[in-house]
TrEMBL record:
Its cofactor is [4Fe-4S] cluster. Belongs to the SsuE family. Isf subfamily. Residues 5-144 form the NADPH-dependent FMN reductase-like domain. It comes from Haloarcula nitratireducens. GO terms for molecular function: FMN binding; oxidoreductase activity. This is NAD(P)H-dependent oxidoreductase.
Length: 192
């Protein structure tokens, strides 16, 4: 059996992104757990604002091919105004059922403040609409400036949660998905 391939999408464009650090940490643990990994750093993609009439604009095909080739996907986002970032939303808009349906997805959010949970709830809803299997464990990094220094997660409890997310991405990469959920069956036209 081949090794599960885990793709991590860092939904931050900041050069010194705490989100990217966290996604890289989760991917490192996915490798330790026996997976192969790939970081999709959205700074390296030309993705114009999504237009349904131009689905292959810029680097969209490179993005969708990379996501399609994954057995599991880690979505990492900074928290902006209580939700996930516009760059991640834009990247997800280029994807759809072809890339996400029946895939295992892990969620990670990084906040400057103390409550990153709503962004994770929003991402979980998006993933359910795409009929993904979302790992029950999720990782949140509140007050990131106090938990990440010089490219490393310095808080041992947070580091353990992020590492576990990478491990579980490999562990559950080939889980038998549930039947389509209500959200995905009512997501009419999403695969147009």
């Amino acid at each position: 059996m081949s090794r599960p391939h885990v793709v991590g999408i860092a939904g931050s464009l900041r050069d010194e992104s705490y989100t990217r650090v966290a996604v890289e940490r989760a991917l490192a643990e996915a490798e330790v757990a026996g997976g192969t990994t790939e970081l999709l750093d959205l700074r390296e993609f030309d993705l114009p604002v999504f237009d349904a009439d131009a689905r292959e604009a810029g680097d969209a095909t490179r993005l969708t091919d990379a996501v399609s080739g994954a057995d599991a996907i880690l979505l990492g986002t900074p928290v902006y105004h209580g939700s996930f970032s516009a760059p991640l939303k834009n990247a997800l808009d280029y994807c759809g059922f072809d890339e996400f349906e029946n895939k295992t997805v892990g969620l990670l959010a990084v906040a400057g403040g103390s409550f990153p949970i709503t962004a994770l709830e929003h991402l979980r809803s998006v993933c359910r609409a795409l009929n993904c299997w979302v790992i029950p464990h999720q990782a949140a990094i509140p007050r990131a400036r106090n938990a990440v220094e010089a490219g490393d997660i310095t808080d041992p409890d947070i580091d353990e949660r992020v590492a576990r997310l990478g491990e579980e991405a490999v562990q559950y990469a080939n889980i038998e998905p549930d039947p389509p959920c209500f959200e995905s069956t009512e997501n009419v036209g999403a695969d147009d």
